[in-house]
Write a structure and sequence with these properties.
homodimer; Rossmann fold
Chain lengths: 274, 274
């Protein structure tokens, strides 16, 4: 089968072109694509280089590439349009409808959707990341008063990456607390958590999957045994139910999905715009 | 001025609708928007709730909202289309051209662009995140052999958030090493870095901005003084030049832009698809 080359191109980071293009390609699950991102196409020399790359891929594949473009600068778009590819402009399709609706002309300035148009936004994301790092894994007294949300779960249920994603993507202050024998044996949660009970959110996972993840980390011993994993997960879920803590099974979810579910369930407000 | 409400809606996380919608709205820099994301619109009850929300916003704003939708399920789309908003379907515009080009019908199955279609992808992102956490801030002997890239820079130049973003977004193994008096005084880099010299990438920043960031952390003392900040940055840049380490000034950049520049400059391959 011919494998098409797909280019995601942008005068900025390429994140928008990648995100939309990737979503569209999932609508063609039986086809395979070779993906190439080319960011910062912001002058004519780079545009000509890119045109040559697209032409070369067309020749090699014997099929013209698909080009998802978020370029806004007219002369650069014209150069790429002459390349041997299907040029899909991700803005053109919708900008006209927006202009009419808003009675305003689009600026056609390079977008900087992922640019630091706002220093405050950058600082908030950094602060939130530092908060997640400082409030990872419960041990010492933590700053739960400042937290927007506190994730609970057994070791390797996905707490840390989720907290970091919430921080980087949404500027949310997310702490996490690992459930261990202390909680399993007492059936209680520490006072510092109980006083912030409304911020608690649980993560769970299937025993099978947790075993798989723990084995990759430390293959031998009790830690990844079926018995231990079953015990921990069963007891953790009982704690969630006892204290009416909302929780989600992360087994089939990506980090984006876990984060979206948390926002949706808790109503926590993001601190930075999407 | 009327503030329009903008809805980003999806049967999945809403990341695609948000990303594209946000990029488009940056083309109208003089207007202000109130942004609402509604993920997981995956059944008729939720679609009717959402329609009611859109109608309520239209009434309150006295202008109909703008709705960026990545819904793929026909009946749900039909419900939202009857709401009092401008319905912009981010797929419709391009799916036809893709179907023709690929001689394949789109599946119109809920996309899961950010779903865990691939367990391996999830594991790689988690592993990369753990690597970034374990290899943060240089102190002990680190696992630089496994690293894809090693970021160098003075304290608070953005190393840690950038490493975490590279891990979560791209599955890249990114370590970081803080430049301190040891390097400034000797004019040398540790052997463990020199043996991985091709992986090194520097971050720098303007003195003014670094002072601002450091002051937020610790307002008094030498750490945030103009003299100290100037000395550190000047010496760090000299080290980058001496050892021919590519570097980027992060002052005007978002985390996405810093990450894209690193990929672009080093040619490091991402380990997971966009």
């Amino acid at each position: 089968m011919v494998q098409r080359t797909v280019f995601f191109i942008s005068d900025q980071t390429g994140v928008t072109a990648e995100t939309l293009g990737h979503s569209l390609l999932t609508q063609f699950p039986d086809l395979e694509f070779r993906r190439v991102t080319v960011p910062f196409v912001d002058n004519e020399a780079r545009a000509h280089d890119l045109k040559a790359k697209i032409d070369a891929a067309a020749e090699k594949d014997e099929e013209r590439p698909i080009v998802f473009s978020s370029l806004v600068h007219g002369p650069l778009r014209e150069i790429i349009r002459t390349a041997d590819g299907l040029y899909l402009d991700i803005f053109d399709a919708l900008v006209g409808a927006l202009e009419t609706e808003l009675s305003t002309k689009a600026s056609y300035a390079a977008g900087r959707a992922h640019g630091m148009s706002d220093t405050e936004t950058y600082m908030k994301r950094i602060e939130a990341t530092n908060f997640a790092l400082a409030n990872d894994d419960g041990g010492m007294t933590r700053d739960y008063e400042q937290a927007d949300v506190i994730l609970l779960g057994v070791s390797r249920s996905g707490k840390t990456p989720t907290c970091l994603y919430l921080a980087l993507q949404y500027g949310i202050f997310a702490a996490n607390f690992p459930l261990t024998d202390d909680e399993f044996e007492s059936g209680k949660l520490p006072d510092k958590l109980m006083t912030n009970r409304k911020k608690l959110f649980g993560l769970t996972i299937t025993p099978r999957r947790l075993q798989q993840i723990r084995r990759e980390r430390r293959s031998a011993g009790k830690y990844a045994s079926a018995q231990q994993v079953n015990f921990e997960l069963r007891t953790a879920e009982r704690l969630f139910q006892k204290f009416r803590i909302p929780f989600v099974d992360t087994t089939e979810f990506s980090i984006e999905e876990i984060a979206s579910r948390i926002l949706e369930t808790t109503g926590v407000e993001r601190r930075v715009a999407p």
